[in-house]
Design a protein that fits this description.
By secondary structure, the protein is an alpha/beta fold. The protein is built from 18 helices and 47 strands. The chain has a 6-stranded mixed beta sheet. It has a 6-stranded mixed beta sheet with strand order 32-35-40-43-46-47. A hairpin with a 4-residue loop joins strand 15 and strand 16. Helix 1 crosses helix 2, helix 1 crosses helix 4 and helix 5 runs antiparallel to helix 6. The protein is globular.
Length: 823
């Protein structure tokens, strides 16, 4: 390490006080690391990004120095350029009074709310069981297939309509009209809010997203929605009376517009107002009290923070959003009038009521009466719950169902979508809500099957699976980790991935364009030798070429020159160095005989992981089958209670079972921070953890039971944490303080993979912190008590947020600087 006197710009000594202070602080950071420092130390950010995050944190502790962010350092790679570019700090800083921390919640209220939530769930399960038993008894009284079909259609249709209308009625009875307000979590007001939210999310109308029927459903809940509105996002708004959408507006999938947020232990509701012909891009977030005027656009991977408004006719993108000239509506309109929309919705209802519902009810009836392994258990006391025959029947049924569906499902995926794809031509404009639209949606639903991506992901087999599915990967440079377990698309037949490219989890390929009346599928091409980080939405026409590093949550540019040989970070994106110096130490693992040996070893390990994945999933299905057969055996005694108990036990068992599976894989020990190659055995073992399903947690969002599960998985979780739908990847590397607030879609990810290098570290969320909707916290991060990370923000690795500070953006920076000294 060179002396601090050489930490300057060029051959001259630091000329300003700010330069000298920066040099001193930087020397203090690197001293313990024993790294080489020169005048262009900032240039090699791949090697020193964690050190730079520590440098930024030290600078922010000084009132007399300007606040420095990682984005500033990327743009100004020397101390002199950094000091010159940042604004001077007044000699007498203006005192800033920090926001008072939220008061600690009430443990008594927390427990009472959880108890009430459990009772509400059990009551709903009992009601569902009562209706199911009465309906099944009535269907069973039929004679002949025709009568059985008619009774199944009538009962199924009545049940379907009841499930659709009950949440709407409950919303108007429990809440009435939503108003702009706020109330504490775990309170009586929150209990009403939670009940309505759960019922809305459990409504089968969620399956009609992208259908005109879904717009009618939101109107029934109180939303003011104009004509010819297209909503493709599965994020269902809750406070619907506060939602206004003008005619001709398009909302793409994975966009959040909830009309509420959780902040510092309180639920805050507020309006979201969209004018006529507005466009909301994929993976964008609209916080409460936001609006877009007529003809305005918000691009992909963008956000509007609370109070922000886009004027009429303007196009904005980024997080925080800023004005742009990019036009995100890239498809011409087509004829799609009211009659077409009505007909599409009506035919959908006919299909559901005449085909799908009676088929489901009738098949269940025939299974219970005609299949010997089930029929002989129908009736109380037939054999007894201790009979070996019960478990043998459950074993046979679960084996046939699980592995039969696995094999037949794979054959179906590799054939039927290919045949359907012949009916939809690329780059041709089709009207919405017609035959071609139905075919396109069917292809998307079938080929985005999560089970097989989970099975094959993070292994050498994923590239073959995706190729058979329809991806264009003409020449594969196998890495053993070309894709993670979560990759999505709108059609696999127009997705091209270049040779040698590696993709982390959460990639969404946007190869369909929509307007309010039309759609078009186009090819989306990702260049060769790229690395794509987590949670990237890649659109058709993305302006990136070969040898690019696309960082986590980056917004892929749609304008300008094609970027090659660079890295891109942020939203809107800016260039950073492509290479990561400290990672090339593992390059000898990726060439020659050593690479082939390690890849073969990784393949063997991944094969065992896949076999274990299938076995553990089958065991889960077997236990659920045992419970189902036992419930059938007791049918005729306490039917309603049995069905309610089965629903409750299935959810509880699923959560506990997969939690214990993960702890067993971990040998009940915490993870330790790592920096290693993906061709080392530790990484293969860590990959195995990603195969354990965790989507079962969604049923517990907004309840104290979610916290019990996180603790069971090893998260160091404080008291009374409010978790509305957070996702934590490395549980034992995560600490969350008392009364923290975690919003829907937020993520705490304590690892990163960049090319062939894996890194992980602890992350700590302090007492009373808030993570906004869709926010992501990376590894090695510390958030001080009471700190707030705004919606859709990306808190980069190694960052430190001071107590009670508010950060926002991608990458996140302090929005209202609060100097430590004045606080």
């Amino acid at each position: 390490m060179v002396e601090s006197s050489t930490i300057h710009n060029g051959d001259t000594a630091p000329s300003t006080r700010t330069e000298r202070k920066f040099a001193e602080l930087l020397a203090g950071v690197v001293k313990a690391e024993r790294v080489s420092v020169d005048s262009h130390f900032f240039d090699d950010l791949g090697a020193n990004s964690l050190l730079m995050a520590q440098f930024c944190a030290r600078v922010r502790k000084h009132d007399d120095l300007p606040s420095v962010s990682m984005k500033d350092i990327y743009r100004h790679p020397t101390i002199r350029s950094l000091a010159t570019a940042l604004p001077a700090v007044p000699a007498v800083p203006v005192p800033v009074v920090p926001e008072e921390p939220a008061p600690a919640g009430s443990t008594r209220r927390y427990v009472l709310c959880g108890t009430a939530q459990l009772l509400i769930f059990l009551a709903y399960s009992y009601l569902a069981g009562l209706v199911t038993v009465r309906g099944f008894t009535w269907v069973s009284a039929g004679s002949g297939l025709g009568d059985i079909y008619l009774r199944s259609a009538l009962f199924g249709t009545a049940g379907f309509l009841g499930m659709c209308l009950f949440p709407v009625a409950a919303k108007w009875i429990l809440v009435g009209r939503w108003q702009t307000c706020e109330f504490p979590v775990w309170s009586l007001a929150y209990l009403r809010f939670w009940t309505v939210r759960v019922l809305i999310h459990a409504n089968p109308m969620r399956f009609f997203i992208g259908n005109p029927l879904y717009v009618l459903y939101l109107r029934a809940l109180g939303a003011r929605i104009g004509r010819n509105v297209t909503i493709l996002s599965p994020a269902v708004p809750v406070c619907t009376d506060l939602l206004t959408i003008g005619a001709g507006t398009v909302i793409r999938k994975d966009a959040y517009f909830l009309c509420y947020r959780a902040h510092a232990g309180r639920i805050q509701t507020g309006p979201v107002t969209l004018g006529r012909d507005v466009y909301i891009g994929e993976r964008s977030v609209l916080d409460i009290k936001t609006s877009l005027g007529d003809g305005a656009q918000l691009g992909h991977a963008s956000a509007l923070q609370s109070g922000e408004a886009v004027p009429a006719g303007q196009h904005w993108h980024g997080s925080p959003a800023q004005r742009t000239d990019v036009d995100y509506v890239r498809v011409a309109p087509a004829g799609c009038g009211t009659l077409r929309r009505f007909g599409y919705g009506f035919l959908t209802l006919v299909q559901v009521c005449v085909v799908y519902v009676p088929l489901g009810v009738g098949v269940m009836y025939l299974l219970l009466t005609e299949v010997p392994a089930l029929g002989r258990w129908l009736g109380p006391g037939t054999e007894g719950l201790t009979s070996a025959a019960l478990y043998l029947d459950a074993l046979v049924i679960s084996l046939v169902v699980f592995f039969g569906f696995t094999l037949l499902g794979m054959v179906w995926l590799f054939t039927v979508p290919r045949l359907l794809n012949l009916l939809v031509k690329p780059d041709k404009v089709y009207p919405l809500y017609g035959f071609h639209y139905s075919v396109h949606r069917a292809i998307a639903r079938m080929t985005n099957n999560k089970f097989f991506k989970w099975l094959f992901g993070d292994s050498s087999y994923i590239v073959h699976y995706l190729r058979y599915l329809g991806y264009d990967m003409s020449r594969i440079e196998q890495t053993g980790s070309n894709f993670g377990t979560d990759v999505a698309h709108e059609t696999p037949f127009l997705a091209t991935i270049g040779s040698g490219t590696m993709v982390a989890d959460g990639l969404s390929i946007i190869n369909a364009d929509f307007s309010s009346s039309s759609f078009r599928v186009s090819r989306a091409s990702i260049g060769a030798h790229n690395f794509l980080g987590n949670f990237i939405a890649y659109p058709a026409g993305g302006r990136t070429g070969e040898n690019c590093l696309l960082a986590t949550k980056v917004m892929v540019p749609l304008d300008g020159e094609v970027r090659e040989g660079v890295g891109l970070l942020g939203s809107p994106s800016f260039e950073i160095p492509r290479s990561v110096e400290r990672d090339i130490r593992f390059d000898h693992f990726r060439t020659g005989d050593e690479f082939r040996r390690r890849l073969a070893a990784k393949n063997r390990h991944n094969t065992v992981t896949m076999a274990l994945f299938l076995f553990l999933r089958w065991v889960h299905v077997f236990v659920l089958t045992v419970l189902a057969v036992a419930a059938i055996e007791l049918y005729g005694v306490v039917e309603q209670l049995l069905i309610a108990a089965y629903m409750a036990l299935s959810i509880a068992f699923t959560a506990v079972y997969f939690s214990m599976v993960e702890r067993v894989i971990l040998r009940f020990r915490p993870l330790r921070p790592q920096l290693c190659s993906i061709y080392e055995q530790y990484f293969w073992w860590h990959e195995r953890l990603w195969k354990v399903p965790d989507t079962h947690f969604n049923a517990f969002n907004g309840t104290p039971f979610k916290n019990l599960l996180w603790r069971m998985l090893g998260v160091r979780l404080g008291r009374r944490v409010f978790d509305d739908g957070c996702y934590i990847t490395e549980r034992t590397l995560t600490a969350v303080g008392d009364d923290a607030t975690l919003n829907m879609g937020s993520k705490i990810q304590c690892h990163s993979q960049e090319d062939g290098t894996f890194k992980s570290d602890h992350s700590t969320i302090g007492n009373g912190c808030t993570l906004g909707v869709g926010a992501l916290v990376h590894y090695g991060v510390t958030m001080g008590d009471g700190a707030v990370l705004a919606a859709d923000s990306f808190l980069m690795k190694g960052e430190e947020i001071p107590q009670r500070a508010r950060w926002a953006g991608n990458p996140a920076t302090e929005t209202h600087p609060v100097h430590q000294g004045s606080a």
